[in-house]
Amino acid sequence: MLLDTFPRFLEEWDGSVDSWLRYIREYPKLFEKIKWDYERYKMDWREFTQVPSKRNVEELVLAHENLLEVLPRVENQIEGIFGIKPEDYNVVIYVGLENGAGWVSEFLGKPSVLFGLEAIAELGWYERFEGLVAHELGHVVHWLIRGENIEERENEPAMWLYTEGFAQRVEDSVTGRPWHLEEEGWFEWCEENEGLLKREFLRRIEENEPLNPFFGSWYTLFGRQFTGYYLGYAFIRWLEGFYPTEKIAKLERGEIMDAILRFLGQRGDAGHEETRP
Question: According to DSSP H, which parts of 176-207 are helical?
Answer without folding.
Answer: 186-192, 194-206
